[in-house]
């Protein structure tokens, strides 16, 4: 990408898109375009095509998606498959029709089989059954990967797909029902500290393991890949280390400074037992994450404290 190339960030208000936008600005890219969902409904093919005709972006980061934590995925499977299929199909096809030079599609590590060997190598895609709580979302993301591959094969486009591990950072969703574990626990421990509550309830058994990548690191990897990687094969983005959900709870508890107890609500699902990504390929390309989990939790908690009045309704 040149510093004056026209770059479209789809989903610029979300956790991932907002981090990519900050990163592009920080690195000196001056011609970035974006639209809110009220201005441009990415599920509407006609609106999306018109946007591409009018703006003619040269590069596209496709970070717009319907996302959520384990309960949201389980509760609203129709929305997760419908919205994601439409958003990605419309954007990828409009990119082709309007001669976009390069597009990056962002997936998720839930595309890998539930019981795949760990760490998850890129070649494990489509080698087994998916985790049932997020199968519709994962199927939509797999369709996006295959759509990029297919357009590359048939039309010679340059669309790349990156699979980030569990993410956290500014502009995350802090809703206690639909969010991912990291923002949910930051909020729960903070509110328990404020109200002197004797315990915090975490979901599931606390034994599943997850890997967490700070969104600014993810954005750095995305810009790096857009500038250096060309290939049909997906690329994992992660840190290469994971911890149990119980250990995560203890770390957040300590950053927040909460002194009560942790309890587990085992009526809530655990989800996949582990999904640690193999980052050999990304490291070999020349990129490594540099925010430690402790430093990332501190930054995310600081952002929550500064923004809680506007994000919690
Ligand atoms: O982050 P999370 O909702 O999603 O949950 P997944 C991760 C683990 O944290 C699960 C536990 O074992 C949860 O039971 N957990 C403990 C909690 N306390 C809480 C809590 O208060 N809130 C939440 N949300 N979880 C999602 C997928 O899977 O991850 C998506 O459903 C996507 O498709 C995304 O892949 C990255 O990591 O299980």
List the helices and strands and how they pair.
Blueprint: E1 7-10, H1 15-26, E2 32-33, H2 45-55, E3 59-62, H3 70-75, H4 77-97, E4 102-106, H5 135-155, E5 159-164, E6 166-168, H6 181-194, E7 199-203, E8 209-210, E9 212-214, H7 215-228, E10 235-237, E11 243-244, H8 245-256, E12 261-265, H9 280-285, H10 293-311
Helix pairs in contact: 1-7, 2-4, 4-5, 6-8, 6-10, 8-10
Task: Write a structural description.
The chain is of the alpha/beta class. The protein has a domain at 7-171 and 211-242 and 275-291: Rossmann fold (3-Layer(aba) Sandwich). The protein has helices spanning 15-26, 45-55, 70-75, 77-97, 135-155, 181-194, 215-228, 245-256, 280-285, 293-311, and strands spanning 7-10, 32-33, 59-62, 102-106, 159-164, 166-168, 199-203, 209-210, 212-214, 235-237, 243-244, 261-265. Helix 5 (135-155) links the parallel strand 4 and strand 5. Helix 1 (15-26) packs across helix 7 (215-228), helix 2 (45-55) runs parallel beside helix 4 (77-97) and helix 4 runs parallel beside helix 5 (135-155). The longest helix is centred in the first third of the chain and has 21 residues, at 77-97. The protein is globular and about 60 Å long. The protein binds guanosine-5'-diphosphate-beta-L-fucopyranose. The site of guanosine-5'-diphosphate-beta-L-fucopyranose has 24 residues, from helix 3, helix 6 and strand 7.
């Amino acid at each position: 990408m040149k510093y004056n190339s026209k770059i479209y960030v789809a989903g610029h208000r979300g956790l991932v898109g907002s981090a990519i936008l900050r990163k592009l600005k920080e690195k000196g890219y001056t011609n970035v375009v974006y639209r809110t969902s009220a201005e441009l409904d990415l599920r509407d093919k006609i609106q999306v095509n018109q946007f591409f005709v009018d703006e003619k972006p040269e590069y596209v980061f496709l970070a717009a998606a319907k996302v959520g934590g384990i309960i949201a995925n389980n509760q609203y499977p129709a929305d997760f498959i419908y919205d994601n299929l439409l958003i990605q199909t419309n954007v990828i096809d409009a990119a082709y029709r309007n001669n976009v030079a390069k597009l990056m599609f962002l997936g998720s590590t839930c595309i890998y089989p539930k019981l795949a060997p760990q760490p998850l190598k890129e070649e494990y895609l489509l080698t087994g059954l998916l985790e049932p709580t997020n199968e519709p979302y994962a199927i939509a993301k797999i369709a996006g990967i295959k759509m990029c591959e297919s357009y590359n094969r048939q039309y010679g486009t340059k669309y790349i797909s990156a699979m980030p591990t569990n993410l956290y950072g500014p502009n995350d969703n802090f809703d206690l029902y639909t969010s991912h574990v990291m923002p949910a626990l930051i909020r729960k421990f903070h509110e328990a500290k404020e109200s002197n509550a004797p315990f915090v309830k975490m979901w599931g058994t606390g034994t599943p393991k997850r890997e967490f990548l700070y969104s600014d690191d993810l954005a750095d990897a995305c810009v790096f890949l857009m500038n250096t990687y060309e290939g049909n094969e997906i690329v994992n983005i992660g840190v290469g280390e994971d911890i149990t959900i119980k250990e995560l709870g203890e770390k957040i508890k300590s950053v927040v400074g909460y002194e009560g107890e942790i309890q587990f609500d085992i009526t809530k699902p655990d989800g996949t037992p582990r999904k640690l990504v193999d980052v050999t390929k990304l490291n070999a390309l020349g990129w490594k994450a540099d925010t430690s989990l402790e430093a990332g939790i501190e930054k995310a908690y600081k952002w929550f404290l500064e923004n809680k009045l506007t994000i919690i309704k």
